[in-house]
C-alpha cells in the first residue's frame, strides 16, 4: 500500500513537472533556445488567475482563460522585445537575456502583488479526494485533473505537430531553418507562434501547480522551472513524449528518494540519478542521437 | 600588408596601442585599479560600502575568468561553477580554523587556505569533469547544474569540528561529532561559522593577477590552442589527432581549481558562509558576467564582473526599483546592440571617435 | 563579427557611465561619525533634520524572504513615528535591503555606516545576521535584532558537549527567543500539557532556524521521555510537496506533528494532511505566526493548531490594537502585522528607552553610544514591556528573557492555550 501511495504521489508531482517541461521542450525544440523565463511566466499565470478569482470573484474557468490569454500575450511581448532581435546571435546571448527577463518578471510581480504569499483557491472545485481501499489510498482531485490534462495536452501537441500545417512548419524550422525558409515557411511567425503556445501552456501549468500547492509568491516559478528543465533534458529535449516521461519519472524518483532513502539527501539523489541516466544515454531517454556530420 | 612585415615602418604609437589593447593592457588595468583604490584608501576618500566590496569584486573577477576558460575557450556551457567555489570556500574555512594556532600570521594562513581551496576545487573538478566530458551542449549544462546542486545538498548536511583529539566529521548533527570542548567549524545548514576574516584587497588583487596569468598563458600555449581547436571543430581536431577528452578535461579542472581559490578568498572575507550561497543562482550570476564581458574575452570578464558587482549597490538610492532597473539594464545591454537602428547609430558614434579617425588616416598614409 | 564589436563598444560606453556614477558615490566619503551622503540613503524616515539619532535597519525587502524584511521595516517605522510624535530625542530610520544574502547584508551595513548609523536594528534573518554582527562587533556599533534567532548571532553559547561555534559578541542583543530556547520550551510545553504521545517532526533542513530548533527539541524530548517516532525534513528547493513526510508520520502512528518551520510551508502541510485524511495535532513555533493572515487561506485548516508566539495581532489590549492600526496605515495594506513587525517595533522602543536611561545625545559617536547602551540594557533594573512580552530583560549573553505564550487557533482566532 505504501508503494502505491508513493507511486501516486510521485505521478502527481511528476505530472506538474511534465506540463512545465512540455512548454520548455516545445520552445527549445523549435527555436533552439533555453527559455529560463518560462518558470516565471508560470508564476505570472498563477497571479492572473488568483486576481480573477479572488478580486473579481469569477468562475474558475474564466480565471483559467484569463491566465492563458494573459500569458500568451506576455509571451508574445517578451519574444518580440527580447528574443527576436537576437535570432542570429549565439545561444548563450539569448540565455542571458532570458535570465534578465526572469529577474524582470520576478521583480515586477513583487512590486505589483507584494511579498506576502497568496493562497490560491483550487480551480478543481469542491470535490474531495477519491479514497480507495478503505481510505488507505488517497488520490486527490487535483492529481487526477493534472494527469488527465497532461495526457490531453501531450496528445494534442503530437497531433498538432504532425497533422496541421503550422505544426509541420514548426518541425521543419526545428530541423533546418534555412531549408524551411527556402520552402516558403515564414520562420519568424512560426517561432513567435511557438512561444505563444509555450506561454499558454505555462499558464495552464501555473494554474494546476497552484491548485495542488496553493502558495504563491513572486519566486514560486523559479525552482519548478529548473526542475522541469531537468525533466525535459532527462526525457530528451525536443521530444514531446520525452518531456512527459521525464517529468513523471523525475517526480517518482523524488518521492521515492524521500520515502525510501531519506529526506535529507533527496535532492542530491534525484540529481545523481539524472546524471547516471544521462551518462548511460547521453541524449536523454527518448531523445534522438543526432550524429555530428563533418 | 607591408606594414606588418617591416617592423621599422610601424610607428611606435601604433605598437604601443597594440600592446595596450592586448593582454598586457589587461594586467595594467588590474594594477591601475589597485593603485587608484589604495590611493583612495590612504586619502580616506573611499566609502565603507565600496571598501567592503573590494574583496568580493576580486572574487567575482577571478570566478568570471575561470568560467570564461570553460565557456569561452573550451566552448562549453557550465551551470554549476559555483559548486567549485563552494568546495574551495569550505575547505579553506576548515583549514583556517585548524591552523589558527599553528600559523598565527594571517597572510600566510590565507595563502595556505587559498591553495587548499584550489586543490579541492581541482579534485572536484576532476570528479565532475570525468563523467561530464562524455556529454556536450545542453546535456552537459544540465549535468553541471545537477552536480552543483548535489554539492550544495551534501554541504547542507555536513558537520565538521575539531578539538584536542583532531578533526571530526558527521553528516547528521553536531552531537554525533563526538567531541568535547571543541570548536565547530561547519554547522550543517548554517555553513562554515566562526571564520576569522583574513582576506585583504592585496590578496584579492594578487589572486586576480594569478588567475589572469594562468588563463592567458594557457590560452597562448600549445594546450590552449588544442582546446580552442576542439571548441571550434571537434571532429576536425580529433581527425588531426588531438586528444579531445584530455584537453577538455584540462580546461575544466584548471577552471575548477581557480574557482576553488576564489571561493576560499570569499569565505575568509565573511564570518560565516552558507552552502545555499553557492547555488545555481550564483552560477548563473557569474555566467552573466562572462557573457556580458564577451565570451572568450578575458579583459571583458574583468571589467564586467567588477562593474556588475558594484552596480546593484550604486542603485541603492532607487530603493524599491533597484532590482527592476538592474534587470532592465541587463536586457538592454544584450538586446540593443542587435537592433539595426541602434547598431547603425553606434557605428556612427564609434567612427566619430578620435582614436579611430586617426588610425584610418595613418593607415591610408602608410599605404 | 561586426555585431560583436558593437556590443563590446556599447558595453564599454556603459562601463564608463557606470564607473562615473560609482566613483561619484565613492567620492561622497565618510570618516565615520558625521557626514551623511544623500546618494546612499535608501528608505529614510523620521526626523531628517540632522539632530536625531540615526537608526539603521537591514532586512530582505526583495527575494524569497521579503515578507519578513518588509514586516520589520514597517514595524520599526511605526515605532519611530510614534516616538518622534511623543517628543524628546528624535529618531531617524534608514532601512536597507539585503535580499536575505549575507554578502549584500554586509554591503547594506557598510552603506549605513557611510550614512552615519549609530544603532543597528537588524538584521531580520539569521544567515546575514551572523556576518553583519561580526562587522558591528569589530566597529563597536550597538546591534539588536528583532528576529535573527540563532545563537551564532550573539555568540558564546556552547552546546551540550561544550563545543563552541562563535565567540560572544558583546554588542549584539536579540529581541526574539533563541532557537534552542524555543526547541526546549516546545518540548516542555508538550510534555507538561500532555499534548501528544507519539511525536513526528517535519523540519527544514536547509534553514538554520528550523534545524536549530529541531535539534534542541529532540535533545530535550529525550530527557523528558517524549517518544519521537518520525523525523523527516525538506529543503527550500522542495518546499511544496510534503506527502511523503506526512505519510511517514501517519504510518508510524504519530498523533502530534511538531513543525519548527515558517507559516508558508506550514499552510501547505495542513492542506495536504487534510487531503490525505490525516488529522494529528499540530504544534508550531513563532514562525507559524502569520498563517491566519495569509490572503485566501482557509482558516479551518488551521483549526486546533498550537504554537508558541510572543505576539498576537488580534489580541484585545490597547497597545496591540493601536499598533495594528498604525501598521496598516504605514504598510498601505489591510494585512495584519506578524510578530516580525512587532519585534521590530519593540526593538526601536527598547533602544529609545536605553538611550534615555544612558543619557546619550545624537552628537555622540556610535562607539560611545554602544558602550553606554550595553551598560544600560544589561543593568539589573532595566526592563521593558512591549508588544512581544512583559518585563523583558537582557543579560550579558545577549539573550532576552521573556515567557513564550502558548496559543491555539480556534475558529480562525488565537486563543490562549492555558
From TrEMBL, chain A:
It is a multi-pass membrane protein. PANTHER family: BRANCHED-CHAIN AMINO ACID TRANSPORT SYSTEM PERMEASE PROTEIN LIVH, HIGH-AFFINITY BRANCHED-CHAIN AMINO ACID TRANSPORT SYSTEM PERMEASE PROTEIN LIVH. The lineage of its organism: Bacteria, Bacillati, Actinomycetota, Coriobacteriia, Coriobacteriales. It comes from the Bacteria. Keywords: Amino-acid transport, Cell inner membrane, Cell membrane, Membrane, Transmembrane, Transmembrane helix, Transport. InterPro entries: ABC_transp_permease, BCAA_transport_permease. This is Branched-chain amino acid ABC transporter permease. It is found in: Cell membrane. The chain crosses the membrane at residues 6-24, 62-82, 94-115, 135-161, 191-216, 228-252, 259-280. Pfam families: BPD_transp_2 (PF02653). Belongs to the binding-protein-dependent transport system permease family. LivHM subfamily.
UniProtKB/TrEMBL annotation, chain B:
Keywords: Cell membrane, Membrane, Transmembrane, Transmembrane helix. It comes from the Bacteria. It is a multi-pass membrane protein. CDD domains: TM_PBP1_LivM_like. Its main location: membrane. Pfam families: BPD_transp_2. It is found in: Cell membrane. The chain crosses the membrane at residues 24-42, 54-73, 79-100, 107-130, 198-219, 249-266, 286-311, 323-346. This is Branched-chain amino acid ABC transporter permease. It comes from Kribbibacterium absianum.
TrEMBL record, chain C:
The keyword Ubl conjugation does not apply. The keyword Ribosomal protein does not apply. Residues 54-395 form the Leucine-binding protein domain. This is ABC transporter substrate-binding protein. NCBIfam families: TAT_signal_seq (TIGR01409). It comes from the Bacteria. It holds the Pfam family Peripla_BP_6. InterPro entries: BCAA_transport (IPR051010), Leu-bd (IPR028081), Leu_Ile_Val-bd (IPR000709), Peripla_BP_I (IPR028082), TAT_signal (IPR006311), TAT_signal_bac_arc (IPR019546). Residues 1-24 form the signal peptide. Residues 395-418 are annotated as: Disordered. Keywords: Amino-acid transport, Signal, Transport. Belongs to the leucine-binding protein family.
Amino acid at each position: 500500500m505504501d508503494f502505491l501511495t508513493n507511486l501516486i504521489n510521485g505521478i502527481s508531482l511528476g505530472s506538474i513537472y511534465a506540463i512545465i517541461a512540455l512548454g520548455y521542450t516545445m520552445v527549445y525544440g523549435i527555436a533552439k533556445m533555453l527559455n529560463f523565463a518560462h518558470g516565471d511566466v508560470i508564476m505570472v499565470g498563477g497571479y492572473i488567475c488568483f486576481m480573477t478569482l479572488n478580486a473579481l470573484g469569477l468562475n474558475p474557468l474564466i480565471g483559467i482563460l484569463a491566465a492563458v490569454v494573459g500569458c500568451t500575450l506576455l509571451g508574445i511581448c517578451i519574444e518580440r522585445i527580447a528574443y527576436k532581435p537576437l535570432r542570429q546571435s549565439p545561444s548563450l546571448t539569448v540565455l542571458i537575456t532570458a535570465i534578465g527577463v526572469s529577474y524582470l518578471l520576478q521583480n515586477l510581480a513583487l512590486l505589483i502583488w507584494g511579498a506576502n504569499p497568496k493562497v490560491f483557491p483550487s480551480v478543481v472545485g469542491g470535490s474531495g479526494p477519491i479514497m480507495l481501499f478503505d481510505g488507505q489510498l488517497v488520490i486527490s482531485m487535483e492529481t487526477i485533473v493534472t494527469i488527465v490534462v497532461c495526457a490531453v495536452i501531450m496528445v494534442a501537441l503530437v497531433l498538432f505537430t504532425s497533422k496541421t500545417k503550422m505544426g509541420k512548419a514548426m518541425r521543419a524550422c526545428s530541423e533546418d531553418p534555412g531549408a524551411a525558409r527556402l520552402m516558403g515557411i515564414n520562420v519568424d511567425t512560426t517561432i513567435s507562434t511557438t512561444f505563444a503556445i509555450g506561454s499558454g501552456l505555462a499558464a495552464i501549468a501555473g494554474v494546476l501547480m497552484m491548485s495542488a500547492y496553493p502558495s504563491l509568491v513572486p519566486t514560486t516559478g523559479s525552482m519548478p522551472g529548473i526542475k522541469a528543465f531537468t525533466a525535459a533534458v532527462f526525457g530528451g529535449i525536443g521530444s514531446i513524449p520525452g518531456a512527459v516521461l521525464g517529468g513523471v519519472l523525475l517526480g517518482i524518483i523524488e518521492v521515492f528518494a524521500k520515502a525510501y532513502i531519506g529526506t535529507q539527501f533527496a535532492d542530491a539523489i534525484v540529481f545523481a540519478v539524472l546524471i547516471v541516466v544521462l551518462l548511460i544515454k547521453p541524449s536523454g531517454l527518448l531523445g534522438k542521437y543526432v550524429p555530428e556530420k563533418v | 600588408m607591408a606594414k606588418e612585415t617591416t617592423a621599422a615602418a610601424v610607428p611606435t604609437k601604433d605598437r604601443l596601442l597594440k600592446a595596450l589593447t592586448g593582454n598586457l593592457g589587461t594586467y595594467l588595468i588590474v594594477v591601475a585599479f589597485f593603485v587608484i583604490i589604495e590611493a583612495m584608501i590612504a586619502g580616506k576618500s573611499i566609502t565603507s560600502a565600496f571598501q567592503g566590496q573590494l574583496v568580493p569584486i576580486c572574487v567575482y573577477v577571478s570566478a568570471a575568468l575561470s568560467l570564461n576558460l570553460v565557456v569561452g575557450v573550451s566552448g562549453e556551457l557550465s551551470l554549476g561553477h559555483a559548486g567549485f567555489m563552494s568546495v574551495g570556500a569550505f575547505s579553506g574555512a576548515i583549514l583556517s580554523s585548524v591552523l589558527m594556532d599553528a600559523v598565527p600570521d594571517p597572510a600566510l594562513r590565507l595563502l595556505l587556505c587559498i591553495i587548499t581551496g584550489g586543490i579541492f576545487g581541482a579534485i572536484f573538478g576532476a570528479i565532475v569533469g570525468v563523467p561530464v566530458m562524455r556529454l556536450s551542449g545542453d546535456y552537459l549544462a544540465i549535468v553541471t547544474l545537477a552536480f552543483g546542486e548535489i554539492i550544495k545538498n551534501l554541504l547542507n548536511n555536513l558537520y565538521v569540528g575539531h578539538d584536542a583529539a583532531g578533526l571530526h566529521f558527521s553528516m547528521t548533527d553536531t552531537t554525533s561529532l563526538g567531541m568535547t570542548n571543541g570548536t565547530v567549524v561547519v554547522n550543517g545548514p548554517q555553513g562554515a561559522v566562526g571564520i576569522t576574516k583574513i582576506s585583504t584587497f592585496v590578496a584579492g588583487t594578487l589572486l586576480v593577477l594569478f588567475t589572469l596569468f594562468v588563463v592567458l598563458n594557457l590560452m597562448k600555449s600549445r594546450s590552449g590552442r588544442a582546446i580552442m581547436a576542439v571548441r571550434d571543430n571537434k571532429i576536425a581536431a580529433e581527425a588531426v589527432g588531438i586528444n579531445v577528452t584530455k584537453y577538455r578535461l584540462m580546461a575544466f579542472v584548471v577552471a575548477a581549481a581557480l574557482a576553488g581559490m576564489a571561493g576560499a578568498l570569499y569565505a575568509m572575507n565573511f564570518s560565516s558562509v552558507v552552502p545555499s550561497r553557492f547555488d545555481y543562482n550564483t552560477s548563473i550570476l557569474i555566467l552573466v558576467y562572462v557573457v556580458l564581458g564577451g565570451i572568450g574575452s578575458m579583459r571583458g570578464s574583468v571589467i564586467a564582473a567588477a562593474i556588475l558587482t558594484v552596480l546593484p549597490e550604486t542603485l541603492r538610492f532607487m530603493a524599491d526599483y533597484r532590482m527592476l532597473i538592474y534587470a532592465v539594464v541587463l536586457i538592454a545591454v544584450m538586446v540593443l546592440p542587435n537592433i539595426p537602428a541602434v547598431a547603425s547609430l553606434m557605428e556612427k558614434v564609434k567612427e566619430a571617435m578620435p582614436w579611430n579617425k586617426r588610425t584610418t588616416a595613418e593607415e591610408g598614409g602608410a599605404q | 563579427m561586426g555585431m560583436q564589436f558593437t556590443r563590446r563598444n556599447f558595453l564599454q560606453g556603459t562601463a564608463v557611465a557606470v564607473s562615473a556614477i560609482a566613483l561619484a558615490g565613492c567620492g561622497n566619503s565618510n570618516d565615520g561619525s558625521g557626514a551623511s551622503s544623500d546618494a546612499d540613503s535608501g528608505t529614510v524616515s523620521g526626523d531628517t533634520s540632522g539632530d536625531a539619532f540615526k537608526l539603521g535597519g537591514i532586512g530582505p525587502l526583495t527575494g524569497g524572504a521579503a515578507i519578513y524584511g518588509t514586516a520589520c521595516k514597517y514595524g520599526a517605522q511605526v515605532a519611530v513615528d510614534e516616538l518622534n510624535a511623543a517628543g524628546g530625542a528624535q529618531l531617524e530610520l534608514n532601512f536597507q535591503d539585503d535580499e536575505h544574502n549575507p554578502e549584500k547584508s554586509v554591503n547594506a551595513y557598510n552603506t549605513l555606516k557611510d550614512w552615519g548609523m549609530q544603532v543597528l536594528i537588524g538584521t531580520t534573518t539569521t544567515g546575514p545576521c551572523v556576518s553583519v554582527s561580526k562587522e558591528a562587533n569589530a566597529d563597536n556599533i550597538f546591534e539588536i535584532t528583532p528576529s535573527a534567532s540563532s545563537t551564532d548571532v550573539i555568540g558564546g553559547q556552547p552546546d551540550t558537549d561544550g563545543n563552541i561555534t562563535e565567540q560572544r559578541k558583546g554588542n549584539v542583543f536579540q529581541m526574539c527567543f533563541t532557537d534552542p530556547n524555543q526547541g526546549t520550551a516546545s518540548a516542555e510545553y508538550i510534555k507538561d500539557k500532555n499534548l501528544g504521545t507519539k511525536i513526528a517532526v517535519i523540519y527544514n533542513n536547509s534553514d538554520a532556524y528550523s534545524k536549530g530548533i529541531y535539534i534542541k527539541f529532540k535533545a530535550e524530548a529525550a530527557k523528558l521521555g517524549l517518544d519521537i517516532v518520525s523525523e523527516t525534513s525538506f529543503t527550500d528547493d522542495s518546499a511544496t510537496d510534503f506527502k511523503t513526510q506526512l505519510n511517514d508520520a501517519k504510518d508510524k502512528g504519530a498523533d502530534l506533528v511538531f513543525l519548527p518551520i515558517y507559516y508558508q510551508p506550514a499552510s501547505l502541510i495542513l492542506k495536504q494532511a487534510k487531503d490525505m485524511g490525516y488529522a494529528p495535532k499540530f504544534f508550531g513555533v513563532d514562525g507559524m505566526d502569520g498563517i491566519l493572515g495569509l490572503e485566501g487561506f482557509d482558516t479551518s485548516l488551521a483549526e486546533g493548531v498550537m504554537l508558541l508566539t510572543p505576539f498576537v495581532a488580534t489580541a484585545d489590549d490597547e497597545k496591540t490594537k493601536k499598533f495594528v492600526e498604525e501598521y496598516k496605515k504605514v504598510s498601505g495594506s489591510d494585512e495584519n502585522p506578524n510578530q516580525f513587525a512587532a519585534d521590530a517595533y519593540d526593538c526601536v522602543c527598547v533602544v529609545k528607552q536605553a538611550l534615555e536611561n544612558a543619557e546619550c545625545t545624537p552628537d555622540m559617536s556610535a562607539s560611545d553610544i554602544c558602550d553606554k547602551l550595553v551598560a544600560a540594557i544589561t543593568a539589573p533594573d532595566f526592563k521593558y514591556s512591549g508588544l512581544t512580552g512583559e518585563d523583558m530583560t537582557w543579560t550579558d549573553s545577549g539573550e532576552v528573557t521573556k515567557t513564550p505564550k502558548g496559543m491555539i487557533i480556534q475558529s480562525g482566532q488565537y486563543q490562549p492555550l492555558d
